[in-house]
Amino acid sequence: MSAAIIETKPAVFPEHLARRVGLRETLSQTMTMAYRALIRLRRTPEQWTDVLILPFLFTFMFAYLFGGAIAGSVTDYLPALIPAIIVQGVVQASVVTGTQLREDMDTGVFDRFRSLPMARIAPLAGALLTDTIRYALITGLTILVGMLIGWRPGGGWGVLAGALLVIVTAWAVSWCWALLGVTARTAGTVQGIAMLIMMPLTFLSNAFVPTQTLPDWLRVVAEWNPVSHLITALRELANEGVWGVDVWWTLLGAVVLVAVFAPLTVRAYMRKA
Predict the structure, then answer these.
(1) Of 115, 122, 112, nearest to 23 (Cα)?
(2) Please, which of 101, 159, 223, 240 could form a disulfide with 181 given CB 3.0 to 4.6 Å?
(3) Which positions ≥6 away from 221 have C-beta within 8 Å?
(4) Secondary structure of the chain: what % helix, strand, coil (to 5)?
């Protein structure tokens, strides 16, 4: 007797059984997917390396290496340095959104989601929501380290406002990496392209040196750099409690990023989800 050959296919939720998922259910499913992402982070603690270690490493390294040379002392350098470290850490951490999204798609997790009667946007929205927790932790830890080594922000309410501004901006930037995560071939490609973009943006700015010390052509680049606007906005809010024009430029940039990249990301994601 010949053995029966059984052909298996990926389980896909039948179209004729699909039902429209309302806004309330979509929000509930998004929170569920965000909780799933948190559990995943708990079970893979190495993914918290950038959150728990880099704020300490970068703050101590830049403060004690460059503080005396640039500002005369570590204490005098901290009001300019700590906001820069916060922005650098949070903006670079936003790349994780794209890499983890690509990893989920490569390992077949999204094929499992397709077999469930759930909103297809929920996994994407849940991942973006969870990453805001990473941004908040990086911001809080960097502020704590800065205060431990002598930073005394004088902005009062501006410290909280600046922290929220950074988190919102990083969330907007994460839409760019989410689009790259959906369209790129591998997670390594996402990481490589993102670093190739973020490293020049971070260092060709007013993050670690005054723009007045730069050559004329490079000073123009640094002053128009959107990262410089975010850093200046955070410095003014945290150190002086001033809601300056750079805050408005940063918020405008965040709105533009979301308006452009969110629809593109959702469209590309829906095609594959």
Answers:
(1) 122
(2) 101
(3) 204
(4) 80, 0, 20
Among candidate residues 41, 51, 61, 62, the one with its CA nearest the CA of residue 89: 51
The residue to which tokens 């490493």 are assigned: 57
230 neighbors 166 (Cβ within 8 angstroms): yes
**Confidence at residue 61, expressed as pLDDT on a 0 to 100 scale:** 87
Residue with tokens 């591998």: 186
Name residue 229's amino acid.
H
Query: Tell me, what amino acid is at 129?
Result: L
CA distances from 60 to 74, 79, 83, 149, 265 (A): 10, 14, 14, 9, 37
Report how far apart the first and last C-alpha atoms of the chain are (Å, whole number). Answer: 42
> If we measure between CA atoms, which residue out of 110, 94, 103, 242 comes closest to residue 171?
94
0.70 surpassed by pTM: yes
Q: What is the pLDDT confidence band of residue 118, given thresholds at 50, 70 and 90?
A: low
Residue showing tokens 């009001």: 79
The whole-angstrom separation of Cα 19 and Cα 21 is 6
Q: Which amino acid is at 265?
A: T
